[in-house]
């Protein structure tokens, strides 16, 4: 028998919950919400969005544009040390272009007026990678591992703490209280939560490990709330729509890390291809592809065979025998700024409906409810013969 077989509660995903409303005063509905959050102790960003440390997501172009919008790009570490450091340098040297009119959420700048950028590190070559990234001017580090509750992670965090005490370090990924207590105990300034739930991820499918993202975030943020010294929780993976973002933030995440959401955008590194070219390459999908899709964008996981062109990609998974991610396509969605401002408008409206004007107030006030499968049928469009698709992100 296993040490424990949990039959109740089940593990839940974010899309199974709804957010209750509360009294919304007129002043609240008219005010500009405070979306600033800490993603590590003493390290704040202006909107609660981080882009995933993935080859298909965070290159310098996307990281720079996200920082202009107030969020944080995390450059991927599944590449040689010098090329990651060069990407960091390119963000630090990009024009901030920070006029408040076109970028209403304050641009994320360092003390010298340069754009802020994060970078991922792995648990194998950190002794060489961290100095190169620090030299390039990185502002914050993230340990990139699908299973972060390990001795390798402990050594990596302790190395950064001892040698670069001024650079904040976020540990992860973890999915339970034990993970939070260990990572914070080893000195991490924040934790990243999520395993097996990324849109390109097959980890749970191929080897069973993982947990529904809502349950993982609830358990980790409840444990964090009991820590003697507060530390942020970042929900990473399985968050695609504004609805899922609102629930992740309401149930206790301080910020969200997104892969597919950003991979769809103009600034993401993957190739953009037309519908016709896609159908020429994959004729079998003809008839199945949504007729409204004109362009597609490549999106592949860090655990996919494609990501492993660079040796470093295997370090996230600690093995090189089998794939834990897939290589696919997502619908192209246009420029980052437009998408983000629409998504943020939804999040602010949702917060206001719940009576909150900041993420910490949302944590205090939110009443989140598990919905029945039948009631969830009514969440999407139903009983219509035809309608025009609307973006949910
Ligand atoms: P999503 O936003 O596309 O659902 O998920 C992105 C997250 O999935 C990443 O931040 C990372 O934690 C995780 N990831 C990246 N590659 C893989 C994989 O190949 C993966 N399995 O699970």
Description:
By secondary structure, this protein is α/β, with parallel strands linked by helices. It has a single domain (30-269, 336-375), classed as Aldolase class I (TIM Barrel), CATH 3.20.20.70. It has helices at residues 26-30, 60-68, 81-92, 126-136, 151-163, 177-185, 203-207, 213-225, 242-250, 260-263, 275-281, 336-353, 359-365, 373-377; strands spanning 17-19, 37-40, 43-45, 49-51, 72-75, 118-121, 140-143, 169-174, 190-193, 233-236, 255-258, 272-274, 295-300, 327-331, 368-370. The strands form 4 sheets. Strands 4-5-6-7-8-9-10-11 form an 8-stranded parallel beta barrel, surrounded by 7 helices. It has a 3-stranded antiparallel sheet with strand order 12-13-14. A two-stranded antiparallel ribbon has the order 1-15. The longest helix is centred in the last third of the chain and has 18 residues, at 336-353. The mean pLDDT is 95.
List the defining traits of the structure above:
14 helices, TIM Barrel, eight-stranded parallel beta barrel, single chain, three-stranded antiparallel β-sheet, alpha/beta, 393 residues, binds ligand MZP
Q: How would you summarize the topology of this molecule?
A:
Layout: E1 17-19, H1 26-30, E2 37-40, E3 43-45, E4 49-51, H2 60-68, E5 72-75, H3 81-92, E6 118-121, H4 126-136, E7 140-143, H5 151-163, E8 169-174, H6 177-185, E9 190-193, H7 203-207, H8 213-225, E10 233-236, H9 242-250, E11 255-258, H10 260-263, E12 272-274, H11 275-281, E13 295-300, E14 327-331, H12 336-353, H13 359-365, E15 368-370, H14 373-377
Parallel strand pairs: 4-5, 4-11, 5-6, 6-7, 7-8, 8-9, 9-10, 10-11
Antiparallel strand pairs: 1-15, 2-3, 12-13, 13-14
Helix pairs in contact: 2-3, 3-4, 6-8, 9-12
Ligand MZP binds at residues 52, 54, 173, 194, 198-201, 203, 236-239, 257-260, 301-304, 324-325.
């Amino acid at each position: 028998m296993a040490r424990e077989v949990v039959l109740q509660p089940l593990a839940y995903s974010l899309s199974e919950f709804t957010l209750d409303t509360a009294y919304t005063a007129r002043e609240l509905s008219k005010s500009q919400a405070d979306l600033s959050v800490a993603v590590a102790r003493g390290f704040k960003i202006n909107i609660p969005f981080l882009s995933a440390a993935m080859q298909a997501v965070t290159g310098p172009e996307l990281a720079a544009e996200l920082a202009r919008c107030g969020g944080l790009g995390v450059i991927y570490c599944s590449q040689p040390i010098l090329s990651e450091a060069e990407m960091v340098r390119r963000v630090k040297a990009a024009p901030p272009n920070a006029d408040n009119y076109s970028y209403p959420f304050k641009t994320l700048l360092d003390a010298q007026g340069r754009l802020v950028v994060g970078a991922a590190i792995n648990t194998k070559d950190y002794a060489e990678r961290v100095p190169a990234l620090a030299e390039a001017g990185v502002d914050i580090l993230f340990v990139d591992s699908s299973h972060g509750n390990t001795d390798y992670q402990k050594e990596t965090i302790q190395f950064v703490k001892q040698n670069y005490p001024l650079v904040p370090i976020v540990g992860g990924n973890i999915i339970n209280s034990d993970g939070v207590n260990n990572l914070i105990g080893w000195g991490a300034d924040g934790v990243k939560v999520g395993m097996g739930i990324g849109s390109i991820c097959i980890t749970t499918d191929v080897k069973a490990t993982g947990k529904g993202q809502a349950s993982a975030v609830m358990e980790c943020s409840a444990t964090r709330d009991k820590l003697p010294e507060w530390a942020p929780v970042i929900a990473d993976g399985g968050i695609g729509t504004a609805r899922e973002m609102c629930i992740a933030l309401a149930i206790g995440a301080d910020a969200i890390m997104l892969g597919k959401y950003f991979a769809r955008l103009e600034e993401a590194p993957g190739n953009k291809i037309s519908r016709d070219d896609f159908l020429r390459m994959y004729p079998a999908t003809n008839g199945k592809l949504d007729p409204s899709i004109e362009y597609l964008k490549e999106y592949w996981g860090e655990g996919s065979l494609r990501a492993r062109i660079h040796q470093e990609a295997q370090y996230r998974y600690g093995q090189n025998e089998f794939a834990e991610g897939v290589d696919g396509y997502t619908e192209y969605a246009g420029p980052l700024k437009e998408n983000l401002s629409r998504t943020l408008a939804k999040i602010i409206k949702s917060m206001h409906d719940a009576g909150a004007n900041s993420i910490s107030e949302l944590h205090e006030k939110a009443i989140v409810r598990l919905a029945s499968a039948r009631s969830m049928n009514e969440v999407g469009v139903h009983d219509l013969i035809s309608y025009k698709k609307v973006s949910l992100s």
